[in-house]
Amino acid sequence: MGVNYPICLDGKRACPSEDVGGIGGYAEFLEIIKNPKHECFEEMREWINGEFDPEYFDPGEVKFDDPKKRLKALFEEF
Prior knowledge:
By secondary structure, the chain is mainly alpha-helical.
């Protein structure tokens, strides 16, 4: 018996870093990394380990969690 998982067919833009600071922080981050003269440019590049292309997206890289494992983990917490 197999499990059917969702399949990502399309999308837009790269995922921001988890701790970028929300929508406002991501907007500020994008402004900084497109301006090599910005005082925080090198710091941000180091933080993201080099290059970052905000337009990059590959549907094949999207991973979905197993919903049964997530449900089990949720109830194990209680």
